[in-house]
Amino acid sequence: MKTDIDIRSHSHFSFDLWLTLIKSHPEFKAKRVELFSSFFEVDQPMDKVAKAVKYYDDLCNTINEVIGGNVDTFEIYLLILGSLNVDLKQLDQEKLNRFYQKSEDLFLEYKPVVIFENLHEFFEEIRSQGKTISILSNTGFIKGRTMRKFLMNENLDQYIDFHVYSDETNCSKPSPQIFREVKSLIKNQEVDLHRILHIGDNPVADYKGAKDFGFNAHLLKHPIL
User: Fold this and answer.
1) Which of 1, 8, 15 is nearest to 161 (CA)?
2) Whether residue 117 sits in one domain with residue 215
3) Of all residues in the chain, what percent carry a pLDDT higher than 70?
4) Owning domain of residue 123
5) Deepest in the core among 90, 100, 104, 178, taking most CB within 10 A?
6) Is residue 5 part of a domain?
7) How far is residue 51's CA from residue 219's CA, in Å, rounded to a whole number?
8) What are phi and psi of 155, to 5 degrees?
9) pTM of the entire structure?
10) Omega within 30 of 0 (cis) for the link into 174
11) Within 10 Å of residue 96's Cβ, how many Cβ atoms?
């Protein structure tokens, strides 16, 4: 994919993940619904479970963007299960942890598809010019620790100086707090804000959030997703 991302004019490149660099494996979400239903013994039709999962995934993502905080993955599970009439009193942290591990295994089996063409070459080009790279991603069902594993498996982690995930910072884009976290982790603390470029697909969370903080921003639009 050809982009007009200006490498020369910037010193640091912050990348969103979902629908910027990657998208879900076409079978993953359906497999996750099946796992969710069987693991928690949900006594509801599969299509109803799928609708509940999508509804609360979208809702919590919106809440994170509006409030600037982070709804925890396990809180999302409980909201879904409560809406499906599962007795939440039968659950505990250990069971939720076990489900997350199974979900992570499934995610790494049905791994995301890289949609940013020639991504390794693009990262190589940035690094060859002495510039630095980071990941800045809001998380929901998939925690930052799992995204790190995926990026390591794809040999992409070698190019990335640091990662910032909403579940680890307890704040989400477009909150200025999470962009401040990016700035604080850049090795060259003297770099001007406008020489930090954030690249993402979301006009509010990525583009406006970065611009409002003082970063430069690039809104990425993929022709086909």
Assistant:
1) 15
2) yes
3) 97
4) 12-23+113-219
5) 178
6) no
7) 29
8) 60, 30
9) 0.95
10) yes
11) 18
